[in-house]
Amino acid sequence: MTSSTSIRLNSAKPTSFPTLSPKTRRTLSLHDLLSSNTPSTTSTQRSKNVHHRRQCGIVDCHKYALTGGFCIRHGGGKRCNFIGCQTVAQSGGRCKAHGGGSKCKVFGCGSVARRKGFCMMHGGRQQCKIDGCLKCAHGGGFCISHGGGKRCSSIACSKSAQAGGFCYSHGGGKRCAAPECFQAARKGGLCIRHRKVAALI
Description:
The chain is low in regular secondary structure. Among the domains are: 53-89, no CATH class; 173-201, no CATH class. It has helices at residues 30-36, 42-48, 192-200. Residues 1-11 and 38-51 have low confidence and may be disordered. InterPro entries: Znf_WRKY19. Residues 54-76, 127-148, 149-172, 173-194 form the WRKY19-like zinc finger domain.
């Protein structure tokens, strides 16, 4: 006597998928059903697409490159259109010393705006912490005369440091734009003597 055994295949209940979108109430396609079970890769893609700015074209310089492929210190970016000035241009095509950049909010004041939209004379910069001193504060909350700001890297020199970490006397700061002149550059990219000469031309 043979006993018959009945085997029921796929006894588990079939997986049911929603056929309507809960938001739009439209019929879901096969692509919608498959993508709903696939983990989102949006965050991963965003992390891979993070914008990396170019670095300066000078070797060992890690600053960001501007127009021309170099940082500001190495000649990148737009320059002031005032004759002989190599300072970085602000709005209006000129540097702050030659009238570029935003102006002070005080009516009738044409000075360059600093902190909170005001010039230095109208409260646009923090004043020195020393009582009675009206000079602008630098590093540490004091003016240069009272010890504020960075000092020259040369031994036993207490003068204010310029670009490069040294004072003007020890080679810091920009040099005059006039040919074969190595004096410290002041306003307009020229030294005091060549600035006077340029004013007479």
